[in-house]
Design brief:
Chain A: Keywords: 4Fe-4S, Electron transport, Iron, Iron-sulfur, Metal-binding, Transport. Chain A: GO terms for molecular function: 4 iron, 4 sulfur cluster binding; metal ion binding. Chain A: This is 4Fe-4S dicluster domain-containing protein. The structure holds two protein chains of two kinds. By secondary structure, chain A is an alpha+beta fold. Chain A is 23% helix and 22% strand. In chain A, a hairpin with a 4-residue loop joins strand 6 (102-104) and strand 7 (109-111). Chain A is globular, with a radius of gyration of 18 Å. The relative contact order of chain A is 0.23. Chain B is an alpha+beta fold. Helix content of chain B is 39%, strand content 13%. In chain B, helix 2 packs across helix 20 (489-506) and helix 13 (362-377) packs parallel to helix 17.
Chain lengths: 158, 615
């Protein structure tokens, strides 16, 4: 059973623990500028939104890569950048409609979310469960439950 | 190692930016942030220096936990000699600026001298340069941040700046970062203004590495986060209600200073409380509160993001204030509200927005307005002199005074000097609710006796954050003590003062101490930092920092008589509530406190104590 990162912006406080966890997992430093998940702060609306790769089934980044450096990890469904193959041409960054694959100048390669080998550090670090790692087929379950709870179950008078 | 091991020295007179290695022996003795920056300041300036002269220095400093995954590890401190008090000033701020300084590879930035023209400092990792800020001078903190990001075409820059209040050297001007977080007290923004330094803009991509024991650090920080999450205050009360959770509590305790401390309970407290921020307004059906928000790395998220009522008289034709923004926090709601008898929460948010926008401490500003309103009611100040009718409770006067003070107009210039200078000028020094020239925060010293001693002995003038005995006397953290008695308070205050110096110097937020004791901080520091960071050492370092600050103040000219409260709190008993009939027992507590501290009966650090602490 595949899992997905699921994001609920309403729960996000903007603390950036996810960005630090991501950079620590992949680079061994606390460094939001190297994070593969970003939290956007829309000041005037009071809204904070974490955003990262959703691992498209038909991944445009993967299809665009001229050297076949982005490959499917069948166990997790993650589209993973193989750094030893990547030549840093950045074509994938143009192909991705969401901007979630980016160049990293220190390594000269691109980087994107790889689901941390089925144990995403961002979800583990999130203090408010704004980021969770759940059944890929049922990311809507919580929302359904909330609406279900509002259903009127009173039996009409006969 | 925790520290970046590198500091930036900016000489504004000469226009130079020079890197230096961090003094690692001092880091071992004073930890970081508040303690370490104070050590640098005290070693480099004459304690008698005029705070607004080029000879004063201003230091922005992070701690070893700043920029790490330690919860709340995003704090930075500004240390300088304060113009409001003449004492050491040390103002701490959250937001994201502190962590960015660390990510750029710097532990602290020391500013010295005075620039011949307005400048801002731009730092991009190792590169640091002063840039022309003549186009920014006159702009608000909000406009300054937006303009700098646009000019550099980089939305990820973090900015600390002064607004009009700092430029005009309002004596309680603050330095605002990330739009609504501030190094708020003691006028650090006025010092920045005196140096013609408009802003500091940072971009760091190096990150924080080199943690001594990464695995141990992750285990320690994860365990400590669980303590915060499981605690009723940090896990439930603060995220839901913010610091404003205190408004009704402190009012019921009879410790909510009202109308310049004439009263200790405010009849409209409920109208300006956290609960009121959650209620739907009759006017537009929305609540003032939009959401809570976290500073960098914070797993508490006490910050308030609110939307003002667009139809309120203060903003009806001012759409620039209609968006979501910071506030109200408890201290601001109290100082702008109860201290002036104003129960209109929308007016308080308007005043609060202006304080954020132009960089002004709402505590000292609000408390000064309280003194002005009392002088007005006594007939000492008149409408002709001050430009408005200003009885207690007037939301119109509050709004007008905020605009005048923030922009340096009319009588606002005098309000900008703080209540001590203002009350002295108009012949009533006794009406200034201050210690060492700094206005009281939101706890009355008659109803919470420990706070009287906290205020009287705080090294930066009246302040609740130097030893927050409210935690013990009101909330029972870590043990419940009776707020109405003086017995035991000197020891309690000393213990809080020394421990708080460690929280402040580590780079974390003091609000963690609702749930954490030093024993929760110790394993995080031990794993992050080189050297020994045992409990024994932390206790010693905390006490050392406190005594070092005290020695500076003594050298600056402060004496026993400056560790005192205004006569009102010593002679006019509380009229209502649990503390009815009580005055502050400060005179009883001071001698015992000095003795416990190992100071002379005149409040001077003895040679023996200094020697024991390695000073």
């Amino acid at each position: 059973m595949l899992k997905s990162l699921h994001i609920d912006p309403a729960k996000c406080t903007g603390c950036l623990q996810c960005e630090m966890a991501c950079s620590y997992e992949h680079h061994g430093v606390f460094n939001p500028s190297k994070s593969r998940i970003k939290v956007f702060n829309f000041e005037a609306e009071g809204k904070k939104v974490p955003y990262t790769c959703t691992q498209c089934a038909e991944a445009w980044c993967m299809n665009a890569c001229p050297v076949d450096a982005i490959r499917l990890d069948a166990a997790t469904g993650a589209k993973v950048v193989h750094e030893d193959i990547c030549v840093g041409c950045k074509v994938c960054t143009i192909a991705c409609p969401f901007g979630t694959i980016n160049y990293e100048q220190d390594s000269g390669k691109v980087q994107k979310c790889d689901l941390c080998d089925d144990n995403p550090a961002c979800a583990a670090a999130c203090p408010t469960s704004a980021i969770t790692y759940i059944d890929a087929d049922w990311t809507g379950l919580d929302k359904m439950r909330q609406w279900a709870a509002k259903a009127n179950t009173a039996t009409p008078a006969t | 190692m925790g520290w970046a091991r590198k500091i930036l020295r900016v000489n504004l007179t000469q226009g130079t930016c020079t890197p230096e290695p961090l003094n690692m022996q001092w880091a071992d003795e004073y930890l970081g942030s508040r303690g370490l920056a104070s050590k640098y300041l005290i070693s480099e300036i004459d304690p008698k220096v005029d705070p607004l002269s080029p000879d004063n220095k201003m230091i922005m400093s992070t701690g070893p936990l700043t920029g790490t995954m330690a919860s709340t590890g995003g704090r930075y401190t500004i240390v300088t000699k304060g113009p409001l008090t003449g004492a050491i000033a040390c103002s701490n701020s959250g937001g994201f600026f502190g962590a960015e300084m660390k990510f750029a590879g710097w532990d602290m930035i020391i500013f010295e001298g005075k620039s011949p023209k307005p400048v801002y400092l731009y730092v991009e990792n190792d590169r640091a340069e002063l840039r022309d800020a003549s186009g920014l001078w006159g702009k608000s903190c909000w406009e300054t941040e937006e303009t700098i990001k646009k000019q550099h075409q980089d939305p990820q820059i973090r900015v600390s700046s002064i607004g009009r209040a700092g430029e005009n050297q309002v004596l309680y001007a603050c330095v605002v970062n990330d739009l609504h977080r501030a190094a708020g007290r003691s006028g650090v923004g006025a010092v920045m203004g005196s140096k013609n330094l408009k802003a500091v803009a940072l971009r760091g991509t190096k990150g924080v590495g080199g943690i001594k024991d990464f695995k141990g650090f992750m285990a320690a920080t994860t365990a400590a986060k669980k303590v915060l999450a499981d605690n009723a205050v940090t896990g439930e009360g603060l995220p839901k209600y913010g610091t404003q959770v205190l408004m009704n509590v402190i009012n019921e305790m009879g410790s909510l200073p009202t109308r310049n401390h004439k009263d200790v309970q405010f009849e409209d407290a409920a109208k300006i409380s956290a609960e009121a921020m959650h209620e739907k307004r009759a006017s537009d059906g929305k609540s003032q509160l939009v959401t809570n928000a976290a500073c960098f790395g914070c797993t508490i998220a006490c910050g308030r993001i609110s939307e003002i009522d667009k139809g309120h008289f203060t903003v009806v034709n001012k759409p620039e204030y209609w968006g979501a923004s910071g506030g109200l926090e408890y201290e601001a709601a109290w100082a702008l509200g109860a201290a002036n008898g104003v129960g209109d929460i929308e007016a308080l948010q308007y005043a609060n927005l202006l304080c954020n926008e132009q960089g002004m401490d709402p505590i000292s500003f609000g408390a000064t307005v309280g003194a002005v309103m009392e002088l007005y009611e006594m007939g000492v100040l008149t409408n002709e002199q001050i430009g408005v009718d200003a009885p207690f409770g007037s939301a119109e006067a509050l709004a007008r005074f905020t605009e005048m003070t923030a922009l340096g107009e009319g009588f606002g210039v005098e309000i900008g000097q703080g209540s001590k200078r203002l009350c002295e000028k108009y012949g009533h020094p006794e009406l200034s609710m201050t210690v060492k020239g700094q206005e009281f925060p939101a706890y009355d010293a008659r109803g919470i006796q420990g706070m009287g001693l906290t205020y009287a002995t705080s090294n930066r003038g009246a302040c609740h954050l130097r030893s927050y005995t409210v935690a013990s006397e009101v909330l029972g953290i870590p043990v419940k003590t009776d707020p109405l008695v003086t017995e035991g308070k000197p020891e309690l205050v000393k213990a809080f003062q020394d421990a708080t110096a460690i929280f402040d110097s580590a780079g974390i937020c003091v609000f963690t101490s609702f749930a954490w004791t030093l024993a929760d901080v110790q394993p995080q520091l031990q794993a992050a930092c080189d050297g020994d960071w045992s409990m024994e050492k932390l206790n010693l370092v905390g006490e050392r920092i406190w005594n070092m600050e005290r020695q500076f103040n003594t050298a600056a000219g402060f004496t026993r008589k400056d560790d005192d409260l205004p006569p009102r709190l010593k002679t006019e008993p509380a009229q209502t509530g649990p503390a009815k009939g009580l005055v502050s027992g400060i005179d009883k507590m001071i001698p015992e406190y000095y003795q416990i501290r190992g100071w002379t009966p005149d409040g001077v650090v003895t040679e023996e104590t200094a020697g024991r602490l390695g000073l």
